[in-house]
């Protein structure tokens, strides 16, 4: 077992809702208990959950060497994303670090999970950020509402990272983290350089 301490009520709200909708232990980390706690005089929220092994960022060298494991990982993640979307939720922060080996590859870290059609929290992991969210966050673009396309974009980036050397996206290899959203927000942005690496 593992315990996560957080201040994000959104994650506990998601856990409450999703647990009432069905059994997702093949797709998401299994939660045993959750609620408010006081730790050393500080009020916060706790989630008691199953403990996994390594996340896919840590497993990347193995996943890149072993085609079967890599395809198995993609299959499990795609099915987990489908399960979320079938129940009108997006993960909101899909990335290698949030996919963990529990014997099955499962999603963790639902701090940014939200129902589709809502305004997303002002957060993203920049390399995975969907362009429309990047435009909203970085360039004061039009307000956005969450949709399945957010996770699908992130899933595409995750899959690309599983195939390219060391998971390093060519588009961002010499770019400061703070500038990534400007690149992604460009209307013509594509991962052409990274995809080109796969062909060589």
UniProtKB/TrEMBL annotation:
Record-linked Gene3D superfamilies: Transferase(Phosphotransferase) domain 1
Gene Ontology molecular function, alphabetical: ATP binding; protein serine/threonine kinase activity
Domain Protein kinase: from-to ranges: 1-200
Pfam families: Pkinase (PF00069)
Highest taxon in the source lineage: Eukaryota
Transmembrane region(s): none
PANTHER family the UniProt entry points to: INHIBITOR OF NUCLEAR FACTOR KAPPA-B KINASE EPSILON SUBUNIT HOMOLOG 1-RELATED, SERINE/THREONINE-PROTEIN KINASE SBK1
Protein name from the UniProt record: Aste57867_2174 protein
Organism of derivation: Aphanomyces stellatus
Organism phylogeny: Eukaryota, Sar, Stramenopiles, Oomycota, Saprolegniomycetes
Gene: Aste57867_2174
């Amino acid at each position: 077992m593992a315990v996560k301490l957080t201040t994000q009520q959104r994650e506990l709200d998601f856990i409450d809702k999703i647990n009432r909708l069905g059994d997702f232990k093949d797709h998401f980390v299994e939660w045993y208990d959750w609620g408010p706690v006081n730790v050393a005089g500080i009020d916060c929220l706790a989630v008691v959950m199953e403990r996994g092994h390594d996340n896919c960022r840590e497993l990347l060298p193995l996943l890149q060497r072993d085609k079967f494991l890599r395809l198995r990982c993609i299959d499990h993640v795609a099915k987990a994303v489908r399960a979320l979307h079938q129940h009108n939720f997006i993960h909101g922060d899909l990335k290698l670090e949030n996919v963990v080996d529990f014997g099955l590859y499962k999603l963790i870290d639902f701090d940014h999970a939200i129902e589709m059609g809502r305004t997303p929290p002002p957060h993203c992991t920049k390399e995975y950020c969907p362009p429309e969210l990047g435009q909203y966050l970085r360039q004061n673009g039009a307000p956005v509402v969450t949709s399945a396309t957010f996770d699908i974009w992130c899933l595409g980036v995750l899959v690309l990272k599983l195939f390219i050397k060391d998971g390093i996206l060519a588009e961002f290899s010499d770019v400061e983290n703070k500038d990534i959203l400007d690149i992604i927000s460009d209307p013509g942005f594509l991962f052409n350089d990274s995809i080109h690496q796969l062909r060589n």
